[in-house]
Amino acid sequence: MTGIDDAINEAFRPIATAVVNFVFFSVPIGEAELPLIVVWLIAGALFFTVYLRLINIRGFLHAIRIVIGKEDKGSDAPGEVSHFQALTTAVSGTVGVGNITHVAVAISIGGPGATFWLIVAGFLGMASKFVECTLGVKYRQINADGSVSGGPMFYLDKGLSERGLPRLGKSLAWYYAIFLILACLGAGNMFQANQAYVQFVNVTGGESSFFATRGWLFGSVLA
Q: What is the pLDDT of residues 154-168, one digit of tens each?
């Protein structure tokens, strides 16, 4: 039974390697490797920051007013959640393992200077988040029962259709929805379950723990 973990790892290793190589495809810059996805994210965030005239600064006080309820329009306003509930939901889906542990990893690998670039990326990313949330609200769908559906799969479909690109919009919407499901399994649940397993093994004896070679059992219990 102790070989089940190794068998599972070997079965999924080619898939994981292929996905990592695709998503984090890098180009050599001097002696370093630069993932193109980083360039794409920073370029998009920089464009939105400039195009929206520093909305991450101009809109900051307005955002605070919204969060504390100064802009609430009463219980008759459309939607299922308040501004504050929307914020906490967005934060819960944004701030996670990557924002906590990866900061420590970045600093340990890149040194204190990595902190500066983390701040710059976060500052520019505020504009990207603003655009994402605004489009989500603009193109949300209010269902017959009063519930609300929205997200990139909706604004990609509807937004690009309005610009005369319905087939592209629908294709990108399906692409996003499918990969979102895969991301929820791999980047979300599996990663966090693995981190929980590592910590559990550490507090139950480390390499001598009964669960040290039985990750499949721990995962089955979580599932």
A: 999 999 999 999 999
